[in-house]
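A common beginner's mistake is to predict each chain separately and then try to dock the pieces by hand. The better habit, illustrated here, is to supply every component at once so that their relative placement is modeled jointly.
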Amino acid sequence: MTGRHQRTGKAIAPMAPSVNPDRYTDPRKVAKWLKRNCKWTFGRDCTPGEKADLLQWLSNL
Amino acid sequence: MKTSKKMFWIGLTTVAAGGAVLLSLGAGADWDEHRWSAWGQRADFAPVADQAYVSECGGCHMAYQPGMLPAESWRRIMGNLQDHFGDNAELDEPIRQHILGVLERNAADRVSSGRSPGVARSLSGRAPLRFTETRYFRRKHHEIPARIVEQNPQVGSFANCDACHAGAKKGSYDEHQVRISGVGYWDD
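With all components supplied together, the output reads:
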């Protein structure tokens, strides 16, 4: 279940709240990582709709 | 007061005062920021226990001791977090400023203990982005073949200090405590 950061090798805890209930309980942390990962992936901020889609998908896993 | 009773009270007061000192040390920001490894054991690089630094930076990689690089290096790193060695590591401005302050105050050219002054001297004004690029680091690691680090899936990179230095997170890099995964203890 636990993943690893591709470059640093650091452990990444499961993303799905069904197995890791702490996920998405800290709004500041959620905002920070959405900002970082959207910019890294798309080169821009995600729209509110895109963020909602991703969170909904992860929450239903 | 009888002597035995007096001794009892002195003892009790001493214990209470000791507890108060421990409590205040635990709560004090200065203590946190400059705390060294357990009980007086000298750290090679003084570890920093600043909560924001440990959680924000240590969340993705080992929270490198600030004394590994000079203040100018930390300013360069913290000024380009949107491309942090290939990853986006942007922070909100107040927290970025706070962490930069912690790094600057504890940088290699600011602290006088452990290995930091040696690192700063060896740089003679240069401000590299990576500790592994410093001559100081290379001199200490030239006997380690890249094969057993970079091609070793348990290690991956020389930047992964705590893969081999068990005390790395506490700032201890004793050469007699080096254990390379899949290779064993390394003592030269």
